[in-house]
Amino acid sequence: MSNHDKIRQLIEMRAQARLGGGEKRLDAQHQKGKLSARERIELLLDDNSFEEYDMFVTHRTTAFGLDKQLYLGDGVVTGHGTIDGRLVYVFAQDFTVLGGSLSETYAQKICKIMDQAMLVGAPVIGLNDSGGARIQEGVRSLAGYADIFQRNIMASGVIPQLSAILGPCAGGAVYSPALTDFILMADKQSYMFVTGPKVARTVTGENISEEDLGGARIHASKSGVTHFVTENEEEAMQVLRKLLSYLPQNNMEEPPLVANTDPIDRADDALNHIIPENPNQPYDMLDVIHKLVDGDEFLEVQRYYARNMITGFARFNGMSVGIVANQPNYLAGVLDIDASRKAARFVRFCDAFNIPIVTLVDVPGFLPGSGQEYGGIILHGAKLLYAYGEATVPKVTIILRKAYGGAYDVMSSKHLRGDLNYAWPMAEIAVMGPKGAIEVLYNKELAAAANPAERNAILATKEKQYRDELLNPYEAAKYGYIDDIIEPRNSRFRIIRALQTLANKKLSNPPKKHGNIPL
Ligand code: HXC
User: Fold this and answer.
1) Active site residue 172
2) What is the pLDDT of residues 118-129, one digit of tens each?
């Protein structure tokens, strides 16, 4: 073969690899409204930045006639590129090749880029669209998945790992994403289940659609498995790019500092009026967040799950922060199992990747009742306590209104090494709300009341006394548990100054193999 022919052969083989499972299957993928693996990578990365690895890899299996189904690249596209000029490693599963199912060699391709990402400290993004372990390969495909899981685990807390689910994903194709930091699902085209509807029907007799068993909306609102839902794949890639913009490349680096044009001393008078006079009336904490952060930009994480708790990324004077906030607009912002789990995981992510945490508190306490107790609120609430208490990143807290009971302690209080803890003048910091407190303290007097009018009069007098004496921020400030009571309109400036002050914070926990968070 002449050199010319050799070059020609290379070009032809590359073209063949780019076709994945062939034109017919690519057309079928497009007809389902889905992009191909390579189209996805193009959309995700900066123009012309992708460098592909292992394009000529093929599987080694002969069982079930697989020796006649050889595809260059073996069903996964791997390599590296840049997002906003920053290095990332990426793999995209190709559903057109044997349903994107994972073989031994396919797993080796993914492991290779994960190893390189760890070597140089860069994020890994997985674009998933796969039927899981390749059935014809038996245990070798299971071993391949386990090799990926082990790398997911070792990379956890070292480099950011992001997963997009863009098609039907089953088995290992959901467990690997579950080990990563963030999961995103494109609506109406992606499913996640350990076993699909057919297996569910056979084993348990349950008749359920793919959408209802593991669709994006289910995982966003019910299970909490996915952190983001997007309308389509284009939006999915934009969200991945945006998410990365808040994150450092690895746990040894700081998040990128972004140029900021929003004045740091922008006072907002509306904040002085945002808390209703009636303490039982809700307001939207998202309004507060949007007024505080740079340029009104907030990337909410797990928006549809445990909506009584808000988590997400924003910037203050260009600095990346994680925001954790109670949402009085939903279940009065109460702490329950789902909210505790959601916030705990987010706090731990921020801490692992050097992202300061700003906590906005308005919480009436933990949700009482057997539903919560039987579900293990003791353990789940303890997760959040643990997460805040072990976090060593800068922690800035503002109590806007209620901070009752254990929830006061949990929400990044001074006692859990909160660095700068502020309160608005409307803050109510106490063991419990006035009604509950008076009913406990004046139980006998209330029972002895001659009639309901007298009972109400006792309640009203004592509640007023309780409000005046205990339900304010000054009691906490008197003991130094609150560093300052601030005017709401100045909150943005105070947060920024706090973060600047804490920029060189050095704090570490005692050496240990690892703690034992109540899982
Ligand atoms: C080999 C597979 C495959 C697999 C799909 N295909 N999954 N081939 N191994 N795991 C093939 C199909 O045979 C088909 O080939 C092509 O891919 C497209 O699949 P369809 O079924 O036609 O597509 P669709 O109707 O969209 O359904 C997609 C699906 C379904 C929901 C993913 O294929 C499915 O349920 N697959 C099995 C899922 C599963 O149980 N995987 C094993 C998981 S165990 P042809 O040639 O006909 O087009 C696992 C263990 C890991 O992963 C360890 C976990 C801890």
Assistant:
1) yes
2) 999 999 999 999
